[in-house]
Write a structure and sequence with these properties.
By secondary structure, this protein is of the alpha+beta class. 31% of the residues lie in helices and 30% in strands.
Amino acid sequence: MKTNGLALKSFYADAQVWSGQDGKPLYWIDNISLAVNGLEIAEDSSIQMLHDDDDVQILTGNIYSYEDLGEVATLAEYFKRWQRNLDPAQHSLHDAGSRIKP
């Protein structure tokens, strides 16, 4: 699954994706592998260091639940669900790798 740095960073930083209403974490990522500008990386800590316009490909990754320790989805599937729930303006910005400036 291909995306850009801005979209993946936004997904990774979205508290509604990872935490319940009480703020407790619900999910975590394991077995992650990304290609960034053609170079493979295998650490989710690298997501926060991405540039907005980086070309990112999600190669592997699994989302697991803290509640039952079971697999919820692949990282690509969970990311796609998150994208579908964005409003159209946000989705366009993430696709373009842009950001609204004040």
